[in-house]
Amino acid sequence: MPGRQSRRSLLAAITALPLTGALSACTGDDSASHRSASTSTSGTKGTTTITFWSALRGSQEVVDAFNKTHDHIQVAFEQIPSGTQGGYLKLSNAARAGNAPDVATIEYPQLPGFAIDGVARDITSMISDDLRSKLLPQSLGLTTFENRTFSVPLDVEPMVMHYRKDLFDRFGFDVPTTWDEFAELARKVPRTGGGRRLTLFPTDSFTQFAAWSWQAGAQWFDTSKGAWNVSLADAPTRKVAAYWQRLIDEDLVFVNSASSRLADAQIGNGLVLTRLSGAWDAGAQMNARPEQKNTWRIAPLPQWDPARPALGTHGGSTFAVTKDSRHPEAAMEFIEWQVSHPDALKARLSSGASSQYPAATGLIPVGRKAFDASYYGGQDIYTLFEEEARKISDGWTWGPRMTATGNVMQDAFARAGSGSGTVLSSVRAAQDGTMPDLKALGLATTQRST
């Protein structure tokens, strides 16, 4: 069992668990790992029942498929709300009370915080070499800190460009391949009349801005030199901020919440020609706007330098075994099946609302076959996702309190959208708002020049 260390050490900064619940979270502890009894918590002899919480679409279908084919393990599923004040708050409260589920879905940006808080168990020794070999290295890297792994990736979502092919064809527009071409196109779109804009700068999505910055080479957080080094406004991020500020200042993009009724109207009425988001959003678009079938296509995200293609991710989820799990081995068996078995992906896609790009790349043919491509005019979007996933840059690290960091950034984005502040001042405000949270955790921190 790893020794307990001060939070001020580098290892403690992300991997050593807090004193509360530390013993139950160590995978080598007999009191935790050997509690995976052969008798069920529900009383059925020979069956182990585990609990699973998730907000992901298609999870009920996945659980149903697992339960039909596994007699020795059964999963009791609870659909929880998405968002920081929904499922994550519930998970945190349950962990404080000592009754977190066996398996929880945690998105990449939130994982470091749940690891530091001891909610997500260190599962390094529980992941088989076979499973590791099936996962896209970049995805596994996002769940591994100082060589210790805290969750298993389900999907990894390269950022792509969804575009209105019908409108591009009508106005004779070429699909942009660089950010310079994207800006040139943004200046042409308003001339078509009708109040159209090329895209939306979302004031409620720090992860989208993070993906753009990641693509440009930004490194908002790193754990070199024995501390959490924070630089939310480094040179690549400043370049991205200046780019979007020009588009905003020239009134070439909409600036509002992507989850608002206004955004729904902008997209539904054909006023937005492109949507920049993760691969998962293809399924969400189908589910939200069936009447726009065959008007959308998907293309690679524009590049800064086509000779050196790079991407960040937007979205993606992982499965963690919690510190409170009484059946960690059974939980890991369920997780491995979820992320790597063809029947699991088929079940999730059968919901008709998912287009996840699997972190287990061997499932790509399954996803391609199961996904109804007619919405996108028969386009093979999974081959595109496969090509784009190879461009995801290694080395990105999310911070320990991304929910708080993101809230500050998004509030500032909203003010900038109304003319009070800028995109750059928003990310600087997020850095200023992040530091007190990290220091309150007892983490060693540094700030780099911004």
Automatic annotation (TrEMBL):
Q: Which domain of life is it from?
A: Bacteria
**Identification of the protein by name:** Sugar ABC transporter substrate-binding protein
